[in-house]
Amino acid sequence: MIALWHNYQRMRSTGVLGMNCRNVEFISRYNERRLYPLVDDKLQTKLLAQDYGVPTPKLQFVVNTQHEVNGIESKLEALDSFVLKPAEGSGGKGILVVTGRAGENFVKASGAEISIADVKRHMTNTLAGLHSLGGRADVVIVEDVIAFDDQFAGYSFEGVPDIRIVVFRGYPVMAMMRLATHASDGKANLHQGAVGVGLAIDSGRCLNAVQHSRRVTHHPDTGLDLGKIDIPGWRDLLLLAAQCHDMTGLGYLGADIVLDKNLGPQLLELNARPGLSIQIANGRGLLPRLRHLETLPDSRRWQAARRVDYVIEHFREDATAH
């Protein structure tokens, strides 16, 4: 507890952004409410990304009614792997990843087997709003599974890692990689026990790593040294994240990106209210960078590539691990 307190005090001295400040001075001020559906509804986000040319996992089909669930076998027959997700889910809730088949059963990312009845039940619950914001009736998105990039083998357990990049006024300002663990059931969700790895915004190298807000140096399941993480093609990820501002018009957002070994960076989803735990993963606060970017001219005057180059030049970090 004392260590956590000292860590909190150190972060305050480096400009930690609190929830009230985030909500009032950044989300409310820079995000028009009329734009929220573009990111709160993952189906709208995916269709918008396709129109805008932002790479995203291929959409196979959408399930809108219980009648479609009853005959879903025919649509799943041609798919050895797939992802089911609610269009209006949050926090990773309701996402089911199937990576293979075992006879008539489906195999989850964790290796556990489920039946077609389990898949139908999951779809039915999703349509009923079990996983959606406010419990509203929802639809089921069925999309391709990301092909795990071999260079991250051992850094994520029973699941694909993703990268969260916070973007303000079109400028990427802070990033972290979320690594699945056995405790998180193969999901890259920090609240469920995934590891958060703070990444230097100028290089994509590891700065710091935490699990349940406590600092760690190695993956809890595989034992690999997290300090050796260095994301290849980092500028391309920053550019994708910056383009999401242009695509949506949102001034403050979180972009969740995955690396497919065949297709490269892919946009998973966007968040108009990105959480603050990215600061804990990085061991530093967001506020100084946000205040700095507020002093710059309207971001619409600069192309995404120029904004990314500005960040790389002005937010250089000492990416020494642990």
Keywords for this entry:
single chain; 322 residues; alpha+beta; D-amino Acid Aminotransferase, Chain A, domain 1; seven-stranded antiparallel β-sheet; six-stranded antiparallel β-sheet; 11 helices; 31% helix; globular
Number of domains: 2
Structural class: alpha+beta
Largest sheet: 7 strands, antiparallel
What is the CATH topology of the largest domain?
D-amino Acid Aminotransferase, Chain A, domain 1
Order of helices and strands: HHHHEHHEEEEHEEEEEEHEEHHH
State the end-to-end distance: 20 Å
Task: List strands and helices in order, with pairings.
Elements: H1 2-13, H2 19-30, H3 37-40, H4 42-52, E1 59-63, H5 66-70, H6 73-76, E2 82-86, E3 96-102, E4 105-108, E5 113-114, H7 116-127, E6 140-143, E7 162-168, E8 171-179, E9 195-199, E10 206-211, E11 214-215, H8 234-248, E12 252-260, E13 264-271, H9 278-282, H10 287-294, H11 304-314
Antiparallel strand pairs: 1-6, 2-3, 2-6, 3-4, 4-5, 7-8, 7-12, 8-9, 9-10, 10-11, 12-13
Helix pairs in contact: 8-11
